[in-house]
Amino acid sequence: MRILIVGGSGYVGTLMLPWLAAEHEIRVLDLVPPQGDYDYVAGSATDPAALATALDGMDAVVHGAMGLRSQTAWPEPDTASSFEVNVASVYTTLEAAHTAGVSRVVLIGSMSVFANEPVRLSSRDVDETTEPDATNLYGVTKRLAEQVGRIAAQAHGMTVTVLRLAWPTPEDVWPLWALPVLDEPMDIRRADGTQIPALAASDLAAAVSAAVRRDAGGYDVFHIFGADDSGRGWSAAKARDGLGWVARRR
User: Fold this and answer.
1) Would you call 68 exposed, middle or buried from its count of C-beta atoms within 10 A (0-12, 13-18, 19+)?
2) pTM value?
């Protein structure tokens, strides 16, 4: 499948590109070139002309662009960048995809749509039917992005799949939790000492690959997180049943 990754040079894009490229033809749209030898279109995720060029000949598009982050917290972009990239560029991408005849779209979402960001998976019992309730800047913009996706699916008959990720992490760091702004990876455990694994890059890419192939049509949301064999915490049953995806890295 020919897939455009919008924002493919960012943190999440860089994690999944090598794995996706092993089974798909990949093109990246970003302001800066990606790390690796990929088909690349220089441009902004908010630029309809750049999107039109990048979408030419594509079968699906994955939106992974994200606004600027502060230097002290992640993810906490400044207000203007957050709404422009996390919301407006999603709308622009979906409209450009519709115009280009690309009906399969995957939006890289976040479990941060829920209040109390998932520092510990056991902190809240949530599933895909739980109403998002985050009020911080990042969470609000990701909630709005989901609504934009739902509207596009209804208005244009597109297949829009939101993957709410929980802490995607480089393969060589897993099962620890890592992000670029952290001084060192974090070892997250439950109160009883049970380790909670991060989402490995390979499992992230497998979820994206499954999502672009989703045939059910319309709009849907799936929770994507690291394999946890403890029997507690969040359930990946919907992703298993709806996408055929389970976290393999154990």
Assistant:
1) middle
2) 0.93
